[in-house]
Amino acid sequence: MNVESLTSGAQLVDVTIPQLLSARRAERMDVPAYHQKRHGKWTAVTWKEYSDRVVSLAVAMQKAGLERGDRVAIMGDVAQEWLIADMATICSGAVMVGVYFTSSSEEVAYYLTDSGSTFIFVGSEVQLGIVMASGQADKLKKIIVLDPDWKGTGAAANVVSIKDFCGTAPVDTDAFLKEHSAKAKSSDLVSIGYTSGTTGFPKGAMLTHLSLLAGAHCVTTFTPRMKDWHRVVVFLPMSHTVARAQATTLPLIVKMVPYFGETSTTFAQTMIEVKPTYFMAPPRFFQRYATHILSRVHSGSAKQKQDYRFAMKIARKALDNRQAGGEPDPFIAGLFEVCREQIFRPLLAEVGLDELKVAYTSSAAMPPELMSLWQLWGLQLKECYGQTELVGANLVQMAEWPEAGTVGVPLRDPAWETVVLEDGEMITRGPGLFVGYWNKPEETKSALRDGWLYTGDVVEVGPTGLFKLVDRKKEIINTSNGKSVSPTQIENEIRHSPFISEAAVIGEGKKHLTALIEVDATATMEWAKSRDSKVATYADLANSEVVIRMIEEEVAKANARLARAEQIKAFRILPEELSPDTGVMTATRKKRRKQLHERYQALIDTLYDESEEKMIRSEMGM
């Protein structure tokens, strides 16, 4: 079967991952499967070398007691070893359990206990320490350290380096893959992907061969450009669905070559060196890149600024022209091409995006103004909707140069269906869906009903059939005066400001709405330092009068675009940047509202005058 010619995810119903790895080995033995940078040098790894390493590790795991259906956790930074461990686990018939490498020891204890993992791969000495502190280390058959430079001094008896674990004994890669391809069924469980846990303990989404492959195949329906060869930088944590597809499954079904940098912290440099042609990332990454580019523009010479302003005037006319439909004005189009080559492409090169051909954003709502800015710069950025439970995406902007503000239309694959219920919740079904939550039958029944995934997301469908994401169904705020408002929509309006990277709207049960604001350090710090001598650190921004007044003006701009019931009456600037380390954000920068409220409750209390409530409580003897 030529998987690159498939037109529907349903055609993968009898296909498995070891089968595809075996096919790639046979077809592209000496072609690079991926590239890894180590100690300042890039190295290409062929499909033969890759599959040999996978099978060598899989055989070692089986010798150490791994059986089909056993769970194997992987916790480590972005690297080729993560990919090899993932593929070795799947090809041996076991189940991969992804653990974010920033997880705490308490979280690791939960993942290991909930999944019942018997093996764990850890990226480095740091993750090893976290696992050892989890209280679960002695229950594991093996703890395998992926870092090739790890020396292993003083480690526990069940801790071993990946090099020592695999050994040097030769393996018959072709025979192994043939044997396990015959054993595997597309319905076999191969992965447990823990959701971000915005409402409590994470839920382990169970994924099969079909889930992973059909979910990845969705990307091929987005654009005909996916038939070309593509370079992709793997940068998100590899337990994340997007990174997993880019590293593990998409290279099996399209001409995609992953690149792994030294570490995730060197991501910016890796992007510049690789110049990816394919890039899918949450909006925050595009926001940071846009801020960097604008900073370069603002620090340029007077002539450079003048040229940029002229180019932007042409770009606005060209974008309006393209989005109006019909034949574009050749004169305007020609002028824009000159501007793109001479002004915009050099700016995009500053962040490594000048050779990008396919660009998508997902995971969170994209501010319309941010998307439009990238389109003005000549990057046809599009938005799609997906979640762990459907692996790929069921909504995507298909039109050329789409207008910002929607997540597009349902996937053009007859195997996928999308329906909007009377209360606005979107449900979907298709071959890439997860098959349930591990150890959570009640949650499974709630999310999966008669083959449909109840997404929990409220959408609106416009007259042209375009879907707009309104909010999470359970995150709609009900104020004390009976108004129901969407915090996400309001937060998007606030985040239009280049000085604001995140906002959290507060107001459940309150008379009016308020917000906690995270300012953008890149855009704000130098601006503030030049105006307030007391500003030295990020924490100082929260108390700087000039910063507070500036953010006040930015919030006022947002309020002007909002209905009265949606307007922010007061705000506080957070004294720290939001981070997964404090438990208030997921690894992909989704807000964990409950944890955020708990951490900043004292600050939230200062936003409301509760004198009336206190008076009533006193009167009632409470």
Summarize the structure.
38% of the residues lie in helices and 20% in strands. With 622 residues, the protein is of the alpha/beta class. It has three domains: 3-261, Rossmann fold; 279-354 and 356-473, Luciferase, Domain 3 (Luciferase, domain 3); 476-619, GMP Synthetase, Chain A, domain 3 (2-Layer Sandwich).
Describe it for me?
With 622 residues, the chain is an alpha/beta fold. The protein folds into three domains: 3-261, 3-Layer(aba) Sandwich (Rossmann fold), CATH 3.40.50; 279-354 and 356-473, Roll (Luciferase, domain 3); 476-619, 2-Layer Sandwich (GMP Synthetase, Chain A, domain 3). The protein has 22 helices and 26 strands. The strands form six sheets. The chain has a seven-stranded mixed beta sheet with strand order 7-6-5-3-4-8-9, with helices on both faces. It has a five-stranded mixed beta sheet with strand order 12-13-14-15-16, with helices on one face. A hairpin with a 2-residue loop joins strand 19 (448-449) and strand 20. Helix 2 packs across helix 3 and helix 11 packs across helix 14. The termini are far apart.
Structural features:
alpha/beta, single chain, Rossmann fold, GMP Synthetase, Chain A, domain 3, 3 domains
Indicate the structural class: alpha/beta
CATH class category label of the largest domain: Alpha Beta
Mean pLDDT: 90
Radius of gyration from the alpha-carbon trace, in angstroms = 25 Å
Distance between the termini: 72 Å
List unreliable stretches of 5+ residues: none
* Percent range for β-strand residues: 15-25%
As laid out across the biggest beta sheet, the strand order is 7-6-5-3-4-8-9
* Assigned CATH architecture of the largest domain: 3-Layer(aba) Sandwich
Number of H- or I-type helical stretches: 22
